[in-house]
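job 3f2a | input accepted
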Amino acid sequence: MPTKRPPEYEFDLTGGILCLDFANTISRREDPEHRREHLAGYADLAAFARQSGLFSPNQTNHLCAYAERHPNQALRTFHKAIALRETLYHAFSATSQHQSTATDDLQQINDAALEALQHRFLALANGGDYRWEWLWDEKNPLERILWPVAQSAAELLTSDKLRTVRFCEAPDCQWLFLDHSRNRSRRWCDMTSCGNRQKARRHYRRTHE
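job 3f2a | predicted structure (209 res):
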């Protein structure tokens, strides 16, 4: 009988930009007892890409089928993705705390962005306008997932939005997000989850002191 796959994880895309959503694919990162990894293999990468709007369901199925036929490529791409994710988290965590990005992290983002640029081309869109599109690399199409993520990181680093990168203040979260609030005072990645939990904890402490 075929192996039944576990239910697909629904990624919480509250970062406000692709590269931060990708950096946030671990829950409770700094809590070894409760840390939860949401990227366990290439299929999870593909699910993240589809849920983020990078690929259609058909394109995702194509990538997953290719990954199953080329497990070594899939594993290498997966490890490369995890390394990129950790670099992004370190880099933007530093930025959110008004610190300089480490030289090694910046170099790795630069290398990934330059590699991504090699797979972009200008295409004519409807109405006579032009837009950037991604090539499909037949040598290893699995890495196509990483190119938009790297490009997103490079664009964030070089934009005014960099000053709005924040670190969720919930001690059991620490995800990254863009603060679009009017007075730039947002403290939590998601008010309905982290924000409400923190308010509930403060209320509990006040009523039990």
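job 3f2a | The helical segments are 18-23, 42-51, 57-69, 71-96, 103-117, 146-157, 191-207.
job 3f2a | closed
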